[in-house]
Amino acid sequence: MEQVIVVGAGLAGSEAAWQLARRGVPVELREMKPHKMTPAHHTAYFGELVCSNSLRSDQLENAVGLLKEELRWCGSLIMACADAHRVEAGGALAVDRHAFAAAITETLRSHPNITVTEEEVTEIPPDGPVILATGPLTSEALSDAIRRRFPNSRYLNFFDAAAPLVTFESVDMDHAWFASRYDRGTPDYINCPMSREEYEAFWQELVTAQEAEVHGFEDAGVFEGCMPVEVMARRGRETLCYGPLKPVGLKDPRTGREPYAVVQLRRDNAQGSIYNLVGFQTHLRFPEQKRVFSMIPALEHAEYVRYGVMHRNTFLDSPRLLDRYYRVREEERLMFAGQITGVEGYVESTASGCLAAVELARRLAGRPPVNFPRETAIGALALYISDRSVANFQPMNVNFGLIPQLGYRVKGKRNKNAALSQRALDALAGLELD
Prior knowledge:
With 434 residues, the chain is an alpha+beta fold. It has 2 domains: 4-154 and 317-428, FAD/NAD(P)-binding domain (3-Layer(bba) Sandwich); 165-311, no CATH class. It has 12 helices and 17 strands. The protein has helices spanning 11-21, 63-73, 77-84, 97-109, 140-149, 196-208, 229-233, 286-293, 318-321, 346-364, 377-385, 413-428, and strands spanning 4-7, 27-31, 54-57, 86-87, 92-95, 114-118, 130-132, 155-162, 165-167, 177-179, 189-194, 261-267, 274-277, 304-306, 309-316, 327-328, 331-336. It has a 6-stranded mixed β-sheet with strand order 6-2-1-7-17-16, covered by helices on one side. Strand 4 (86-87) and strand 5 (92-95) form a beta hairpin. The longest helix has 19 residues, at 346-364. It is globular and about 70 Å long.
């Protein structure tokens, strides 16, 4: 069988190499460590966790818990090593990071179908099947090569500025209404009003809230060209009221008057299940975002599927470039996996590597692809990154907002999420992966 080149031995690349090798596909795994290190990495291990040692919730009432269970069903190496080297962390799956990465490394290096080449890849391999899984800190040389390959599309390598996302069902519509400014066109926005007293309390907390630290591989350029909402607020008490929170042309149907300030939410997916806070790109710590933004009456109980971020990121404009199998639409031999595709998080990166490898192994064997349905977490992520209707593409963690709702009422959020997870696992049982 034709050999596959996998570039990058992070979580996505390691999972992809494993899934291919266990299906009898010969793999050359190219990894630049230890000869060249990124500022975020410190060991020669594959699958090194560069930030937290937590893979987040392990409960089926949480979307990432469902994603983990789906990966276990797929025979994931990353999940097997995580389960074997678990440390106590309540309902989360946290690992002994060194033992975890060492186990991944030993498994891949000792597999008879995997050859490890320790070198920096500076060009996209010109022939044969390739999975590029080089992560958000892709080397400058390879990043330039990818940019040259897609000259007519956005290849994004910059300090990412993204506003928080909330689920529609968690917005208190008793304190909000649908409308476009001056009632022009269709009522596309959810408008969340604040009185003067509510706004001034919100502003005071916003300007004094704690910001996230800047990492060593970032710099002050993070804020250039896209001002965080908290920085804008510090320019004056009323600045936001003349910017993203201006109420002009928005009459509250409850009062018939323009509010003192209005936070607008804009639909972020075709299903209308997720909305973003317009103009709220921010560098605040995640707990601070939840605390301060919950002072907006309509968002008091909002469920955040992604917090605002401003950090260095390298990712493709995947909806225009990739299909649901993480293949380049115009060059199917070339695939991407991991955070470079716009999935966000350890487990999500692993899932992309798993799906890409499953698809590639079947294609090399002359078999049809496996279509993970949208009802599954793996399928929902793949369909999100390949959805051409997404105009302003931003990286995303897995969340139940990406998955179709049940179509019937279940009392209680945990019970509803558990039902969504059970439906996903039932759908997986009907798939043939090998």
